[in-house]
Each structure stands twice: as structure tokens, then as C-alpha cells.
Amino acid sequence: MAAAQALADASQPDSPSIQSAENSRQNGRDTSMNCECEMVARVSAIALLWTATAASANEGMWMPAQTAEVGAAMRADGLQIDPAQLSRLDAAPLNAIVSLGGCSASFVSPQGLVATNHHCVFRSMQYNSKESQDYLTNGFLAKSLGEELPAVPGSRIYVIEDMPDVTADMLKGVSDKLNGFARYERLDTNRKALIAACEEQPNRRCDVGSYYGGASYYLQQKLEIQDVRLVYAPGLGIGNFGGETDNWMWPRHTGDFGFYRAYVAPDGSSRPYARDNVPYRPKNWLRIASKGVQEGDFVMVAGFPGATNRFLTADEVRFNFAHYEPLLQHLLSDYAAQIKQATAGNREAQIRYASILRGVENYKKKLAGDLAGADAIGLDGRKANEEKAFRAWVTKYPVRQTRFDAAIRELDAMVSENSRASLARLRQALLDRAQILSSARTLYRWAKEHEKPDEDRESGFQDRDRNETVDQLTQIERSYLPVIDRKLFEAALDEYRRLDAKDRDTAFETTLDQIGLDRLYADTKLADTATRLGWLDKPAAAFEASDDPFIKLAVALYPGDIAAKHAAKDRAGRSQAARAIFMHGQRAYRQAIGRPMYPDANGSLRITWGKVAGRTRDGQIWMPFTTAEGLLAKETGKGEFDAPDAAIAAIRAKDYGPYVAPALGTLPVNFLSTADITNGNSGSATLNGRGEFVGLAFDGTLEGVISDWERNADRSRSIHVDGRFMLWTMDKIDGASRLLKEMGVLPASRS
Description:
The protein is α+β, with helices and mostly antiparallel strands. It is built from 29 helices and 20 strands. Strand 2 (104-107) and strand 3 (113-116) form a beta hairpin.
């Protein structure tokens, strides 16, 4: 999260036009273009310099359309296929790469088998588990198609098909005459119109992403597969070996992999789960490499990285690390402790809250790495120096100053306003830890929005969002217990009350005092899934007349919610009006100094690459691979280091079959690379130079997470599950020969 996350939370189209700058250029007033022609003339030399720089640093999460800029560097590092192939969404390997809407994944068979991380299928394991059938601990393997289980409600597989530039359409009607709120609304109207036109095609899910702070927009057209089934995931002793102790650490010995399958109707159309649905037949799937990687090899990662913050201003970075992340880490640390205390000794409760706890602990630890990393690399000073150089470049020519200086000053002025709002919202959001209250707020907002025509409703509350809303409301049934929820809500209220009085909701507090916590949980009917879903079609008047205590709280909160949303939209419009021009300047500046610029990660398809490489620093030597023997050395037989007996026996017997790495002389488990990844890349296929599957990206190291803010080649390493360990586990430990045959790893004749 960053200070600017306040904007992203408040808005989908988070950026406006650079129209005033473009008008200036078209009217011939940009005389600095003549002064900069020497730089333009050096494009060829700059390109050669960039190739050398990129080949050594491997920095960047590049859009497929940018492969022409970096293709030479990729070739120099070991890419064997034509880089132009990586710009095509209708051809392998990119049309085998899919999104799970938070994790990345890939097709690995002609029958819609999807490989991703264990932690990306974890919620589906949890959803299908109970105390007497604990898939979290023991793992899950379907012996046939008929045994494959429905994934957690809301699961989707998105197959990206097209990604056109829609900047001109997004900026229609946007001008400097609009205030912040009006600018936001204009962009949102344009965005919804583009999405509606795209989704006139059946079975498609579309969205519009903002790039370079809103200087550019691209539409992602995706085939939406609604029937997702859990196929296989190893037990916790492999899939999460090392647990929270080893999370973000190296050496690592975690088999963080699992499999889904995509299903469609017999006619090939997308529809929700039905018994007669059939496996989806993808146009392409990744071939499993017959030979694994070794140290120094080229690797490429294709996936959907979620968010980076490399191009924020120095003031925004300073606020984030001085105030925002320390508060967030405090809140998450307390939340994790509260969940553990509330569920202690109750296995059913631990299963229900396992996914929530795992996510909280993962992010809490990442924040610790962020904070330590910022100090270690002197991030504040680096950002200040970078920005000083950029601003000096801006002021060198008067016309540049005219184009960019006002936007820089406006962005500076917004930092304080945005920062205060983001801190308040952190504590305000604590109220949604009461899962039934969160549902009631969604339901009432749905009713209020449905008083408007569909095209005027807020994004997230349109007819296209109904299925996702139903899934969201349904998921609670497997992650909620009233006695636990109440304890967590009471703790959240204590923290919420630390807000300044002006940031608290008086109507909510008055209503809660009148109801009381005992009645709140005893009298509600919303804990029942059928009842909860039944409210989705009721009018707002029914909510306002309801005696259900959680609905009464939702109704009390609504006016404040709407006022806060309006204010956030206004801030988003004003901030991003300045940011788009600021980023336009940054791109021009970086082009001038020979550093082509990729956009910050935003959940869209990206390509990154690097080399299999360890790390040496301050007497520490990180070998590029971990091995089965290292796993055995960590094994304790309890807690986070309790591997399955079958795995321990096979390692002791050195029963590795064909999965030995010749250079190591043993079975590899995980490996390090210099590929540039972040959140959302979880489950991304790791490919060799021929575009073949060699593993899965699943983590980074604690020292390297600061790369979300500034890429540091010395500190940054990505952690991958080695494909050979995946195949060994499937073959020798869990008996997943059916899947190995399907993936082309084992001959069909093998029993």
C-alpha cells in the first residue's frame, strides 16, 4: 500500500488527461522540441546503452506491446524464441497465461488444467475442508474428473484475448475546466461505456487500466471461465513447508504449487458450475521442459503483477514509510494476534479463519521488509535525488517548465490532503472485520444503486457485478463463526475509537450503543446464507424498515460512506489530473537519458526476465538452488517443518527418479532468479528461453521487497518452485500419474 493507494481505493479510472500539454504542442508553442533534437538524434546510441543496462539489471515489468523495446536485451540474456512472439496475445506462450483475479496461472494441458501456487488454491482447500476432512493439512488429489471439487465461490479463470489502447476514448470530454469530482465522473462514464461495449460479446469480462498515472489507458478483454474446480494440491507439509518462519526467506524448501481445472458448458460457452460441464480446451498450453534450469540460465516470468509504486513523488514515499506502513503493520500485527487468540484450541475455527490469518501474516511480514529495506538503501535520499534531477531537467527550458511545473506543484500540494485521508481510512476500514456488517453494507449499497439506471450505478454495483456479489456474500459461510467474529469486531472497535472525533461516524456509534453487542449477534438473521442472499433483491425501503441489527448499522453508516466516497473522488480527480502530466514529463525525461520506462504494475499482463542466480553479500552466500537434502535437514516432524512421511522416506532413499538436476546431483526444490516480480505474480509460470514451463514464481526475499518502491538489483531475488520438485512430488509422493500423463510428462501407458 502507498499514500497514493487512497486514490486507487476511491477510483477505477485514477487518472486524467494531459490535454493541456498536448494542446500546447499542437499549437506550436513547444519551442523546446528544437532544443531537444540533439537528444532525439542520439536514439540509436541510447538504445544500445539501454540494451546493455537492461541486460545487466533485468529491471521492468513490461507490457507485451513493449517487447520491441527490450527484445534485444532479452535475446542477449538467452531468449531463444522471437521476441515479437511475446507481443501476441493470440499465440503461445502468452495465450496460455491466465489470471485468477489476484494470482497468476497457466494452462499446462489440452484439457484446461491450470498450474498455480499452493497459496493461490488455499482458500478452495479451506472452503472444502472441515475438521473430519482436513484438506489443508492432508492435501487433496482428485483421482478422476468426477472427483474434482468446486473452488471457493468467486473463483474465476480469465483468459486474456486483446489489449487495445483506448486512451482517446477514455479522454473524451475530459478537460482542465472540470473540477476533481467532475473529472473523475467523466472518466468513470467513459470507462463504463468501453466496458459495456466490450462485454456485449458473450462470456467476456473487460476492464480498463490506467498506465503512467493516466497518460494512457488500455482495455483488457478476457474470456471469463466461471466453473473452476480444485484438482490437486499437496499437503501443508510440502505446499507450505516452513510456514511463516520461512516466508520471504532464503534458503526455502516449499512446494508452493497446486492445480485447478477450467470447465465450460458442452457447447463451449462459459457458465457457472454444472454437473454436465466439460473441461475447457485452451488454444495453447505450456509444454513442460524436458530439461530443468541451472545456474546462469535465462528465465522469463509471465503473469499479472498487482501493484508497484516506483514512480511516486519523493514526498509520497516519505509519508508512506514514516506514517502509513508503520500504522498498517501495527494494525495487522494486532489482527493476527487476535485471530490466533480467538481460535486457539478450536480446530474448526482455525480452519475457517486459516485463509484470513495467512494473508494477514504474509502482508505483515512484507511490510517489515519494506520498512527495513527503505532504511537499508536510503530510499528517501534516492527518491529525493532522482526527483531533484528530474525537476532540474524541467526547469532547463522555459517551455518544459510551462508544461510540467504546475502539475508538479499541484501534486506536491495534494500529498498532505491525501495522506491524512489515507490514515483515517485505515482505521475506518476496521469496521468491516465484522463480516456480517460488511455484507449488510454491500447489500444496502446495492439496493441504493439499483434505484438508478444501470449505466449510472457505481462500478461494482452494476448488473454485470451480480454474480461476483453473490459469490462474495456466499463465501462467508465457510469463514465465519459468530463467537470469533464478535471478538475480532470488539478489538476493531477499540482501534476505531482512536480516530479523531471528526473522522468517526456519530450515527453509527449512536446506533451501535442503542443495539448493544449482545443483540447485534443474537438477533441478526444475516448469518444464514439463504437469508443474506435474499436481501440482494429487496428495495432500499425494506432495509430502512428492517429490525435486523446489522442492517440498521449499515443504514446508519450509509450517509457517511457516500460523503467519504464523494470526497475521495474529488481528491482522485485533482491528484490524477496533475499526475498524468507529471508522468508524461517523467517519460520524456527518461527517454532523454536513455532509460525507456515501463508503467507501474496494475494487475495487467506483464513480462519480466532474469537469470538463475544466487547472491553473495557481507559474508553470506545464497546458493541459487535448494535441495531435497536441505528439506530433510530442516524437518522436525512437527509444526511448520512437518513433511509427509512418504517424502521423508523417498529423500532418505534418494528415490528421485528422472527429476535429478545433473549439475547438483540431487533433487532441486526451489531456485532464485533476478526476475522482477511483485504481488499478483504468485502462480506465474516460469519459462526457459524456449518458452517452456520450468517452475512457478511464488515469493521474494524480505531484503528485496523494497523493489516495489525502487528496484535494487543487488538485493532483489525472486523465489521459484523448481518444476522438477513439482513433478517428483506428483509422481513419487502423491501418485498424481493421471495429471502427469495429461501434461505429457509420463507416457499414457504407464500405470
